[in-house]
Specification:
heterotetramer, A alpha+beta, B alpha+beta, C alpha+beta, D alpha+beta, A: alpha+beta, Aldehyde Oxidoreductase, domain 4, Aldehyde Oxidoreductase, domain 3, 3 domains, 21 helices, 26 strands, about 30% helix, C: Ubiquitin-like (UB roll), DNA polymerase, domain 1, 5-stranded mixed sheet, 5 helices, 5 strands
């Protein structure tokens, strides 16, 4: 295939908008999600959680719970006798079930399995835990101070210079040139500090699983997750099982956004199943989801940017401090990499600090680190534009990264789509629409890497010529549709001749989790390659039938054709005809492809938003929103648009109302959808998606991941819009009404 | 826990009187949340929705009697009630989502005794009364007499609210309720304000009731706020005075939903805006408004 | 623990079950009757994923005790399609790609159907406020609102 | 020899050099060479890195070829959501 087939190819299926293949079961309530299946003899699991932010566990008395009728198993950390060697696995185990101390409000300390939900709940209430409450710290800046309560000593990496509090576990720096000399060339320098609150992914489906685990080490797990292979590997590692003995099946998944790329409670369910000898269903409550599954990090950031009066950025620095929660790790390095990534800068330096706090372990959330990377940078650029009386889109174009630009995180860019998004924004009617009183328009850019990773796909040609496609990544937002389309495109068969399923861990090789916007790119790539593999086999079978050389067979429109007049005169053999004689020509026909798909293309977006600020109450209303993003090639444009709209909506929530609120006691005060305020339908306008297609050379169809970039620009776009509407620069998220009103009054 | 379904008020009173740990279930939108969270563990749930008289809206003495089991959605669909007391009906219509409105009741909102209850300031402004049935018979109490603190009421053992009465709407009067929430729906009021007022023949305000929600442990019925309006035509100066009085009267706290400063500011803003709506509904004109 | 015997009508079928006093209608639908189309996203009436219609009124089944359903008529997502014939809303949701993960979809469909039965010609604002109690985290609501509006227009045209 | 650019805090562990020269024709040789010549980098290499080769990011594939004039940049191991 020519390398530029995505530009020359006349797509028949890709780029159309068919109804998704899993649609009917999802609109009729038949689709089975994490909590939707049961097993004969099943027990109900429940988890007891720490009410303290930081406490030594001196003892746990489970005798009363164990004595209760209907209680079949009670477990604590003592039941997890396998001690993982790998520190990452050990941390996951400790997070699933606290060891010597509870590290955050909501940390699991014990669990039960009982014959009914109500008995399980009553049993939890009968467990007595003897806590010694320890000093705690939940704020990232407080946690960095010397003398702050240390969450866990001895976890500092070699990258952290001496003198930092032990809560600071990691540090990274990126950039090039000399920002100080860059600042000297600037006509104006703006330096500001910003804060963003921790936000939760807010998927509507709480974590749920159904586990069995027998004394012979064989187990089955049905679970809602973004990666059932990851769940298998982690559960095996944590419990000391053989991965091959544990089969994990991914249920339908009710949203994840990164929050279901981690293991939070599945080992607990397996341990309850092992101890009780029964299947155990474990479903978290919404309260537990908020308290004990990871939100993203809160951040505290300092940014300094110098600009000439013509709008050229001469120097730029940023320091990111992100809270990682109760275990080492963190994503400040990603903020440090992504913040200035849209720009072509001579002098730039960023630094990221990973900081432990007494909060749940921070988890991935859609382009992790990138939104809080972009927000302070894009805010300061906007302020510079305001003060220098410059057009914010032209100024971004003037500094925009393009092919050949050395990025702020190091590598030189290949062909990228940032300028295209800015140009599209400039010429869109939204940009020139009039604004009313107390209204403002904000723009911001965003960047995300996109990933590939381990991927397996199997494509079976059935005896009747229909096709079964097995992939190993849960369908979180329409990916079955995309895979079915790519397989149909490649094979040249109608869409309804292909059915795609998500295989369990015993049916297909290792697959990386559904993350990093990798699925349409990497699984799509493997699907195309698996189809091509099957086509090669079918060409061989046709060649054998015709008695010619396989090289002399072409594949088009779902059939084998003689390649030319020299190949001989044979009527085409359709996939159906080839399949019908498969037993006679060598046996079943199946293509497959296994790959670590590296080299995914980076992605850029520009967002534009109008808001209105009520000057008397500080309330912010989003009036109009437009997303401009490069999709490489939109396989199913409806679902690409959906990713743009969904990311923007989550960004709007993050910008205006969502936040983890901790009390002085270190406890989470708003562990529910009532006071953790994600946008409701009446909060939002229509969100206009503008798809740009700058092909990714790393994919046969030019596909780029699209799932994550859309959450990167909204924080800043809205902050810029609100700041312009209010006439005062907002530097702290969320821009909730009390904050906006206070800023207005302080003017 | 038992589940009881009395079909008469007397049965309900008897059940309640016999079991101090029993709880009344009307719409259940607060009760079930607390039950599930383990905050309460009643010995019995007494569902009042099978008591016919508690499920109807009826006219009485020119006013409206609303059964304690009537969901707010039903009030919103009642054109005549809405025409008389739009502020009260709107306040009930603001409680939670469509789904919540299908269940939540005025009486439940009142007896839950939250200072942020949306319908309570509107009912207070409207001079609503609650009819209480108990072992000693029935009594009518002004709505402001029911909540005594956060989650606490003046109801005695064996008593329950059977209905809310909204009196006959005076001529040239209007009511309004506004609340502030961070989103457009689904939130608990950060601040609320209910106002009911009556105009005289000259278009001056002859009577006014102003109630402030979520700015004290119980809803404040503010005479000082009412005084800023009475005798005026609701001009800008009067409305500014009302806003200042409301802010002064508010004794809020800092919590996850708002700050003291924010609540004190915004209660004034809402009072002003609610007063304008009430004046317009009463047939008057407000300063600067057309 | 003594259980309560309840006789009710679900999607037109007379149904009997035994429940604990503290069990919600959602608990019974999901755990006892195997009707898992109604989802529990919060258990506190804040997400709408468990929306059902009881005697014509839209409610959260997580905020109603199962025992309260005695003698009532309950409609759930499982009763929305007539056999193989999807309800027009279900069809439009598919055509508009108004779902991504699909967990909120049953509740939103139940709520939207109840809206259109009351108001065949809702404005965009009315649809948005009616559905404010149904959280969706994937779509930003755009395609959902369009699907509901489009269904309403079609049904008006057909009427 | 291939010139490998290190991020700031890694450079501190490589005697302050922003760029180090490693003899390598593929990714595996590059990672092995870095660990051999700059042992202080080992903990980070073991935790995982991503490597940008001529603008494309690779995580694992040992056989990924590297040319003498390739642009090679070491990055923190990327994670997604």
């Amino acid at each position: 295939m020519p390398k530029d087939e995505y530009t020359s190819r006349d797509f028949k299926v890709v780029g159309t908008r068919p109804i998704r293949p899993d649609g009917i079961e999802k609109v009729t309530g038949k689709a089975r999600y994490g909590a939707d299946i049961s097993a004969p003899g099943m027990l109900w699991g429940a988890i007891l959680r720490s009410p303290h932010a930081h406490a030594r566990i001196k003892g746990i008395d489970t005798s009363k719970a164990r004595a209760m009728k209907g209680v079949k198993a009670v477990i604590t950390r003592a039941d997890f006798t396998h001690q993982p060697e790998d520190s990452g696995m050990a941390d996951i185990l400790d997070n699933c079930m606290a060891g010597d101390k509870a590290r955050y409000d909501g940390h699991a300390v014990a669990a039960v399995a009982a014959t009914s939900k109500s008995i399980a709940r009553a049993a939890l209430a009968a467990i007595e835990v003897d806590y010694e409450v320890l000093p705690h710290v939940t704020d990232v800046d407080e946690a960095m101070k010397t003398g702050a309560p240390v969450v866990e000593p001895g976890r500092q990496q070699e990258s952290v210079p001496e003198g930092y509090c032990e809560n600071v576990t990691g540090r990274s720096q990126y950039g090039h040139g000399d920002p100080e000399s860059g600042f000297e060339q600037a006509d104006l320098i703006v330096e500001r500090s910003f804060k963003t609150a921790a936000t939760h992914q807010g998927y509507i489906e709480p974590h749920a699983c159904l586990a069995t685990l027998d004394s012979d080490g064989q187990g089955d797990l049905w679970v809602c997750t973004q990666g059932h292979y990851m769940v298998r590997n982690v559960c095996a590692g944590v419990l000391g099982l053989d991965a091959g003995q544990l089969r994990v099946t991914a249920s339908e998944i009710g949203g994840g956004f990164g929050g279901k790329t981690h293991v939070w409670m599945e080992p607990t369910a397996l341990m309850l199943a092992r101890k009780s000898g029964k299947p155990v269903k474990l479903v978290l409550s919404r309260d537990e989801v908020f308290r004990a599954t990871g939100p993203t990090a809160s951040s505290s950031v300092d940014v300094k940017i110098g600009m000439t009066s013509e709008g050229k950025i001469t120097g730029a620095t940023a320091t990111y401090r992100l809270q990682a929660g109760a275990y080492p790790g963190g994503i400040a390095f990603l903020s440090a990499m992504c913040g200035f990534a849209p720009y072509d800068l001579e002098n730039v330096r960023t630094e990221g600090f990973e900081v432990m706090t007494n909060r749940p372990k921070a988890a991935a959330y859609r382009a992790p680190g990138a939104p809080m990377g972009a927000y302070p940078v894009e805010s300061v650029i906007d302020e510079l534009c305001q003060k220098l009386d410059l057009d914010p889109l032209e100024t971004r174009l003037k500094n925009a990264a393009r092919e050949g630009t050395r990025s702020s995180y190091g590598p030189t860019y290949p062909a990228i789509g940032l300028e295209a998004t800015l140009e599209a924004a400039k010429s869109h009617p939204h940009w020139s629409a009039p604004l009313g009183e107390n209204q403002g328009r904000g723009v911001a850019c965003g960047f995300w890497f996109n990933f590939g990773g381990d991927t397996c796909v199997s494509l079976m040609v059935n005896p009747d010529g229909t096709v079964s496609l097995s992939e190993g990544n849960p369908d979180i937002g329409g990916s079955r549709a995309s895979m079915t389309m790519m397989a149909a495109e490649e094979l040249g068969v109608p869409l309804d001749q292909v059915r795609t399923i998500i295989a369990d861990t015993a049916s297909l090789g290792q697959n990386e989790v559904t993350d990093g916007s990798r699925v349409t790119f990497a699984v799509g790539l493997a699907t195309i390659k698996a189809a091509r593999h099957a086509i090669e086999i079918m060409k061989e079978r046709a060649a054998m039938t015709w008695g010619i050389d396989p090289e002399a067979v072409d594949w088009r429109d779902g059939a084998a054709h003689p390649a030319g007049p020299n190949a001989g005169k044979f009527p085409p053999m359709t996939i159906k005809e080839i399949a019908a004689i498969a037993s006679n020509t060598g046996g079943p026909i199946a293509g497959h492809h296994e790959v670590n798909a590296e080299g995914a293309g980076v992605s850029f977006a520009t967002h534009m938003v109008d808001t209105e600020v009520d000057p008397e109450t500080g309330a912010v209303k989003v009036l109009r929103y437009t997303v401009f993003q490069d999709a490489g090639k939109a396989v199913h444009p409806d679902y690409v648009e959906g990713q743009f709209q969904g990311g923007a909506a989550q960004g709007i929530g993050w910008a205006i109302n969502e936040e983890y609120i901790y009390g002085d006691d270190g406890r989470l005060q708003n562990a529910g959808f009532l006071d953790y305020r994600i946008p409701v339908a009446s909060d939002l306008p229509m969100i206009e998606p503008v798809i740009l297609e700058i092909p990714n050379p790393g994919h046969p169809y030019g596909v780029r991941g699209v799932g994550e970039t859309s959450i990167v620009p909204p924080l800043a776009a809205i902050a810029n819009s609100v700041s312009r509407a209010a006439g005062v620069r907002l530097t702290s998220l969320p821009m909730s009404p009390p904050r906006v009103l206070a800023a207005l009054k302080a003017q | 826990m038992r589940f009881e379904t009395p079909t008469s008020v007397d049965q309900a009173v008897a059940l309640l009187a016999a079991d101090p740990e029993a709880r009344v279930l009307a719409g259940g939108t607060d009760l079930l949340v607390r039950l599930r969270a383990g905050q309460i563990a009643p010995s019995a749930i007494i569902d009042i929705k099978r008591i016919r008289e508690m499920t109807v809206i009826s006219q009485e003495d020119g006013g409206w009697r609303i059964g304690a089991a009537v969901p707010s959605a039903e009030m919103n669909e009642h054109a005549a009630l809405k025409a008389d007391w739009p502020g009260v009906v709107e306040s009930a219509d603001l409680i939670g989502s469509t789904q919540i409105q299908g269940r939540a009741t005025l009486a439940g909102n009142l007896c839950n005794a939250s200072p942020a209850a949306d319908s309570v300031p509107a009912m207070m402004a409207a001079r609503a009364t609650a009819r209480i049935a108990g072992p000693d018979g029935t009594r009518d109490v002004a709505v402001e007499g029911i909540p005594t603190g956060v989650g606490k009421t003046s109801l005695e053992k064996g008593e329950l609210v059977t209905s809310i009465f909204l009196p006959a709407k005076p001529a040239h009067s209007g009511d309004a309720y506004l609340r502030f929430i961070p989103r457009t729906e689904m939130d608990i009021a950060v601040v609320g304000c209910g106002i009911s007022l009556t105009l005289d023949d000259q278009g001056k305000i002859s009577d006014a009731r102003v109630a402030l929600g979520a700015v004290a442990p119980t809803v404040i019925l503010s005479q000082s706020c009412a005084d800023t309006l009475i005798g005026t035509a609701g001009d800008d100066a009067a409305l500014d005075a009302l806003a200042a009085a409301a802010s002064a009267e508010a004794k809020p706290i800092d919590d996850k939903r708002g700050t003291i400063a924010f609540r004190k500011d915004v209660v004034g803003v809402l009072a002003k805006r609610a007063a304008k709506i009430a004046i317009t509904r009463a047939g008057g004109k407000t300063g600067g408004e057309t | 623990m003594s259980r309560i015997h309840v006789t009710t009508t679900i999607n037109g079928d007379e149904t009997e079950y035994l429940c604990e006093a503290g069990e919600t209608l959602l608990d019974v639908l999901r755990d006892h009757l195997d009707m898992t189309g109604s989802k529990e996203g919060c258990g506190t009436g804040d997400c709408g994923a468990c929306s059902v219609v009881v005697d014509g009124r839209l409610v959260c089944s997580c905020l109603m005790l199962a025992a309260e359903a005695e003698g009532r008529a309950v409609d759930t997502i499982e009763g929305m399609a007539q056999g193989n014939q999807l309800h027009p809303l279900q069809q439009k949701f598919l055509e508009h790609a108004a779902l991504q993960c699909g967990i909120c979809t049953p509740g939103i469909l139940v709520a939207a159907k109840n809206l259109l039965e009351r108001n065949p010609n809702p404005s965009e604002e009315e649809v948005r406020y009616w559905l404010a109690g149904n959280l969706c985290r994937c779509t930003g609501y755009d395609k959902i609102i369009r699907a509901v509006m489009d269904t309403a227009a079609d049904l008006r045209g057909a009427a | 020899m291939v010139a490998v650019r290190l991020w700031g805090s890694l450079a501190e562990l490589a005697d302050g050099q922003q760029t180090v020269e490693i003899k390598a024709a593929n990714l595996r040789q590059l990672l092995d060479g870095l660990a051999r010549d700059y042992p202080a980098l080992k903990p980070q290499l073991e935790r995982g890195v991503s490597v940008s080769i001529d603008g494309k990011i690779y995580n694992d594939t040992w056989a990924t070829p590297i040319e003498e004039d390739s642009e090679v940049v070491l990055l923190n191991r990327l994670v997604g959501g």
